[in-house]
């Protein structure tokens, strides 16, 4: 038997599988470097891509807005790299009073003071205030233009009042836009609810019943309308500079890029593919996956990333076991629950999304669609009754999940284990 230990919430779960059944562990690959995190950050800042150094772009008397991620992205070690970004800005002559931090919450909840402290770190928190973006606060949003996809772009007023907008964050695979980071700090990060929902509604093909656009998926930006629409939205804002990190399998910063928000992101995506893109020679009968523990499995809404990546490793009709504690329940807004509980078939769910799109509904749609195509079992603290109108089954332990699969599908199942499924993307070699 082969023993495994996967992160779950703030703890870990253990299980074992017959060694003959294990196809492999789909995990991040280490990026070879002789630099520590501080050196990686400094090197990226000192070598901006298609841009002058940040210290040369900002000047005394100018106001600078630094857009940071929210607490659901705390894993990107925001408090580690922010001091270096701030130091570079201050080298340009910008005073503390002219620096503002806006957390790109998108449609996520507001954060606590303690969470702000985690994001900035003790030293920066003692000097600066963090403002949570509110996508529904119309008085603090400014219209900037309409994209070619007819997305009306409304952006945080405070950010637009600054002379410079600096984007920070991390680049990982994303099930809608292909890759997170870069322009995503603007849309959805600091955009209006209307802007965000119209952008994300581009994920479907032309008419009801056609389902999701096959170009809208993790690891793809080519012909991806959501990606292209976000790029157009960011062009209205004209960010001055971007600093993004790429995380390694050990949870540390493995690479970083800075400079022009388009060209630097291009370079960052290559790092993601090197670290998180995993070639597989065959698909499995079963995949057992976790996002990597808290906060990546903080709620069901966030679990969508894990689900979308995991299904790429499994044969159609195969089994998927997702470990996601969901300590904060469903997450998102009321749409997460609505799409789970108010409909009992995928056509009606698709119609609801097309008529009244929200991102929260889409995450539930993805889970329901996966459960239609695969035998999906969720190991979670979520109330199982929430899933009664879906084919998603909820159990409390990994042993319960494994027993269900073995009873229904047999003992000899070719299996992949995915310890960081929210990040790692299986790619079938054809």
Uncertain segments are none
Total domains: 2
CA gyration radius, whole angstroms: 21 Å
Name of the CATH architecture of the largest domain = 3-Layer(aba) Sandwich
Number of strands: 20
CATH topology of the largest domain: Rossmann fold
What percent strand? Answer: 15-25%
Helix count from the secondary structure assignment: 14
**For the largest beta sheet, what order do the strands appear in spatially?**
3-19-15-16-17-18
Classify the secondary structure makeup into a structural class.
alpha/beta
- Fourth CATH level, the homologous superfamily of the largest domain: LarA, N-terminal domain
Instruction: Provide the residue-averaged pLDDT.
Output: 93
The helix fraction, in percent, is 25-40%
**General shape:** globular
| End-to-end Cα distance | 31 Å
Major beta sheet summary: 6 strands, parallel
Return the CATH class of the largest domain. Alpha Beta
Could you characterize the architecture of this molecule?
Pfam families: Lar_N (PF09861), LarA_C (PF21113). This is Nickel-dependent lactate racemase. The chain has helices at about 35-45, 55, 80-90, 115-120, 120-125, 155-160, 195-200, 225-235, 265-275, 300-310, 335-340, 345-355, 360-375, 400-410, and strands at about 1-10, 10-15, 20-25, 65-70, 100-105, 130, 140-145, 150-155, 165-170, 175, 180, 240-245, 255-260, 275-280, 285-290, 315-325, 375-380, 395, 415-420, 425-430. A hairpin with a 3-residue loop joins strand 10 (about 175) and strand 11 (about 180). The strands form 6 sheets. The chain has a 6-stranded parallel beta sheet, sandwiched between helices. It has a 6-stranded mixed beta sheet with strand order 6-5-4-9-12-13, with helices on both faces. A two-stranded antiparallel ribbon has the order 1-2. The chain folds into 2 domains: about 1-30 and about 280-430, Alpha-Beta Complex (2-enoyl-CoA Hydratase, Chain A, domain 1), CATH 3.90.226.30; about 35-275, LarA, N-terminal domain (Rossmann fold). With about 425 residues, it is of the alpha/beta class.
């Amino acid at each position: 038997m082969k023993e495994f230990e996967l992160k779950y919430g703030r703890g870990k779960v253990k299980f074992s599988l017959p060694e003959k059944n294990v196809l492999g562990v789909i995990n991040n690959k280490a990026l070879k470097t002789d630099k520590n995190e501080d050196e990686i950050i400094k090197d990226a800042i000192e070598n901006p891509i298609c841009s002058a150094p940040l210290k040369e772009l900002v000047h005394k008397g100018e106001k600078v807005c630094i857009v940071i991620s929210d607490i659901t992205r705390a894993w990107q070690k925001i408090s580690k790299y922010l001091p270096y970004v701030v130091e570079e800005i201050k080298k340009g002559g910008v005073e503390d009073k002219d620096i503002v931090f806006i957390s790109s919450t998108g449609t996520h909840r507001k954060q606590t003071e303690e969470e702000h402290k985690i994001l900035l770190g003790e030293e920066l928190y003692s000097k600066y205030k963090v403002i949570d973006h509110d996508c529904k606060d119309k008085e603090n949003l400014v219209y900037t233009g309409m994209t070619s996809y007819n997305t009306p772009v409304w952006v945080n007023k405070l950010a637009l009042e600054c002379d410079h907008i600096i984007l920070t964050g991390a680049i990982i695979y994303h099930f809608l836009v292909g890759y997170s980071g870069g322009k995503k700090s603007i849309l959805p990060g600091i955009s209006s609810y209307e802007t965000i929902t119209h952008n994300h509604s581009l994920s479907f093909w032309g008419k009801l019943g056609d389902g999701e656009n096959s170009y809208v998926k993790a690891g793809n930006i080519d012909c991806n309308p959501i990606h292209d629409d976000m790029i157009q939205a960011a062009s209205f804002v004209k960010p001055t500079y971007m600093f993004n990190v790429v995380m390694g399998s050990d949870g540390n910063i493995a690479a970083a890029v800075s400079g022009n928000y388009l060209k630097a992101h291009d370079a960052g995506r290559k790092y993601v593919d090197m670290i998180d893109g995993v070639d597989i020679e065959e698909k499995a009968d079963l995949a057992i996956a976790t996002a990597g523990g808290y906060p990546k499995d903080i709620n069901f809404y966030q679990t969508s990333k894990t689900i979308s990546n995991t299904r790429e490793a499994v044969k159609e009709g195969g089994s998927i076991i997702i470990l996601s504690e969901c300590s904060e329940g469903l997450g998102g807004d009321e749409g997460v629950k609505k799409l789970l509980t108010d409909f009992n078939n995928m056509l009606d769910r698709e119609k609801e999304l097309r008529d009244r799109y929200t991102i929260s509904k889409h995450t539930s749609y993805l889970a329901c669609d996966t459960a239609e195509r695969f035998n999906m079992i969720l190991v979670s603290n979520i109330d199982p009754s929430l899933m009664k109108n879906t084919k998603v089954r909820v159990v409390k332990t990994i042993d319960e999940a494994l027993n269900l699969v073995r009873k229904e599908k047999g003992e000899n199942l070719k299996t992949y284990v995915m310890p960081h499924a929210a990040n790692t993307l299986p790619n079938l070699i054809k």
